[in-house]
Amino acid sequence: MSAGREDGPDGDRADGVLVRDGAPAREQEAADPDAPSAESGLGRLTATVARLREQVRRAHADADGRALLEMATGVLVERLHCGPSHAARQLTDLAESAGVPPLELAADIIDQAAQDRLSQTAREFLTRLGTETADGLAARPGTGMPGAGQGGDGPGAAVATPALRLRTAESRVLAADDCQTVAESILEHALAPLGATAVAIWATGPGASLRLVGHAGLPAEEAGLWHYVPPGVISPAIQAMTARRPVWIDSLSEAGVPSIGHRSFPDGGRVAAPAEIAGRIHGVLEICWPDRVEPQPPPIHRQVEALAELVAHTIETVPADSYGGTPATREAPDTTELIDLVDALHDPVLLLLPHLDSAGRLVDFRIHHANSGFADPGGRPRSLITGALLLEAYPEMADDNGLFDAVSRVHATGEPFRDAAMPLTTVVGQVRVPTRCDVGITRHGNAVVLVWRVEDETARLANLLQHAQRLGRIGGFEEDHVTGHITWNSQLYDLYDLPRTTAPLPLDQLPAHTHPDDTAAVGRFLRSVVHHRRPTSAAFRLQRPDGVTRYVRLVAEPVVDADQRLVAVRGAYQDVSAQHWTEVALAVTQDQLAHSEQQTAARNRLAKQLQHAIMPPAHEGVDAPDLDVAVRYRPAEDEHLVGGDWYDAVVLPTRQVLLSVGDVAGHGIDAATGMVALRNALRGLAATGAGPAQILTWLNVVAHHLTKNVTATAVCALYDPPTRTLTWARAGHLPPVHIRDGRAAQVPLANGLLLGAIGEADYEEQQLVLEPGDILLMYTDGLIERRDRSLQESLDQLVATAAHASETLDQRLDHLLTHSTSDTDDDTCIVGIQLPLAARALAVPTAG
């Protein structure tokens, strides 16, 4: 809602006239005779409400205009050193002489006096007045403010109150002499209308710390608890200072950050704005709301930034000892003591002072002094560097290394900066030379001290050598035999587990720190180095005072003079304990691995021997009446893959032919022994004369109860020669393949669970009447199983291969093995039967 327009219960109002549906009320009354007239009760009530609202609006406008004129009068009091009455007359006379309204002249005076962001707010306020406002002011010469004390209808009623609230707060701040008064004035005149309930003013301290110097709307005990915030506390104020921008928090409880006022307003919103002048942050303004704060429009953001700048002005001008802070001034400080300090340092140091533009903004830093240890990377003398601007002397700092940003940040926040390996590009002649430097930046008053040590080749190599000795666990020493002085590096102290204050041990005391079994080797080492003057090495166990034994390799060489007299011995210890124990563990592991390999090989050989004893790869044919039987067994190529596949083809006492194939889960000796148990059990059960389904039922009991965790699949079939009938059942196995008249197909599946899965299982029995020339194939999964295709695809491939014409049954089985597409290298068993073309049946029953 703008300042010159308010919404009423019955419509809108513009310029003091009640508006309904976009037209003034008087026009509506003329257009609508039935509308309530001004003389009616409702009309009089409406006019009274409109008149009262207009009076309230004019009163606010008058107050706002008077506040602006009072601020301009106050500026003239200070500039002209006169009284308020004389200053008010001067303001009126100046406005008449210039031919401008007094309000516009007051804004110009304030603009020139303030020169901050609030002047823009005042200018926007006058712009909103428009031409009508200026004409109205000109129509009232000699008056201080349109309608001031008159209650007239001046256009000054359109003055925007937010701008004047800012000016009112500014006038109170400029008149205040302490931060506490500033906090109370800001809350009362500028922030309370925005819904804020508390304000805290922080001043920066050493090391990016904060000190509470003013507050309003906060309990005294909570302010006492938060009188000081050390560096590293992630509070909104610290965040705003280090980020150098306002930090808005919708809800303090959701953000989970500590701050002042969290007891009084745990769910309230926050904004913390840095109070910055000329590139230096003097403090932080923190504002508290009792409830969650929704995103605010840009004008509110600008208002908060303007208030923060007012706070910075107060902190800058208020004596530092009044709140225990560090004094800050824009004038050039006395740097005599700082110059003496940096000249006493061996490291290269630059003393920098902020350089401001005409508007008071920080644009660069001037090199105020360079100490005697400073060496310009480009080879320029110090006289050319001193007095120059930092970016003019070293423009590369503004590029990619971030050094200038680091200097600006330290100057703004006071937080020290250190980087031991900052990349820096310097220009030598016309060549850009990349290097690294050790940088330290601190702020002292308004000056910045930049310690800038470029890493030369010697320092870089020494640093590299130090890291190599640390990583290699190498301790160096030198023993001077002329002076008796012994030098150790820090790694050698760590190896001996001795404090740095302990005197280094001479070589002749080495046997006292050696394991008794290694003293002879150490003695030979010392004789070779000291007496025979020969470089020597030795490996021994070093016993430390803490009882720890370290395996050490010692290398030393003698240093002799021109007369071949021993001058010194220098060398190095290397802690090889980790390598020694690694070698020991590796040797033990190798022994264990060799033993395991021997045991595995023995078990695999036993399994293969057992399997071949039961099922030799070259199997003789079965002499069955009117039936050709052929078998094939292909063992796995790898011994560790010896599995539990089996086959069987035998003529029973009943003259029936028993045919079976099976596969025990797993590999190795356990699978082979399980195969033997199930195969022999199946033979014995078949001798009872039971059918295949009953045989598998009993065999399941054997697998589940009489063996140790054996599960298997199997196909059991009985062929009756007189009737040419094949009765069969399966226990989770792949279906047989039936070939008739050159066409191959899978035999329909019979239901049956794999053996050993449960204690009791039933199996379905099926019959197949063979015709002369029919072929039936039973096999294990090693013939078809592949990792890259489904089981059904492999079965389809097997059926297509089995249909290939062959002269004999043996040739057909060999063809299957040759063209097998399996890639699992598992055992494979095949049992094939063929009914000769001359076979005749005594009676052919119907297949059931």
Automatic annotation (TrEMBL):
Q: Does the keyword Coiled coil apply?
A: no
Q: What is this protein called?
A: Putative magnesium or manganese-dependent protein phosphatase
GO MF annotation list: phosphatase activity; RNA binding
Output the SUPFAM superfamilies linked to this UniProt entry: GAF domain-like, PP2C-like, PYP-like sensor domain (PAS domain)
Where does this protein have compositionally biased stretches of type Basic and acidic residues?
Answer: 1-15
- PANTHER family assigned: STAGE II SPORULATION PROTEIN E, STAGE II SPORULATION PROTEIN E-RELATED
Could you tell me the keywords of this UniProt record?
Answer: Hydrolase
Region of interest (Disordered), residue spans = 1-42
Give the Pfam families listed for this entry: ANTAR (PF03861), PAS_3 (PF08447), SpoIIE (PF07228)
Q: Do you know which InterPro entries this protein is assigned to?
A: ANTAR (IPR005561), Bact_Sigma-Reg (IPR052016), GAF-like_dom_sf (IPR029016), PAS (IPR000014), PAS-assoc_C (IPR000700), PAS-like_dom_sf (IPR035965), PAS_fold_3 (IPR013655), PPM-type-like_dom_sf (IPR036457)
- On the tree of life, the source organism's domain of life is Bacteria
Write down the species: Actinacidiphila reveromycinica
Domain PAC, by residue range, is 536-588
Domain spans labelled ANTAR:
49-110
Residue ranges that the Swiss-Prot or TrEMBL entry lists as coiled coil: none
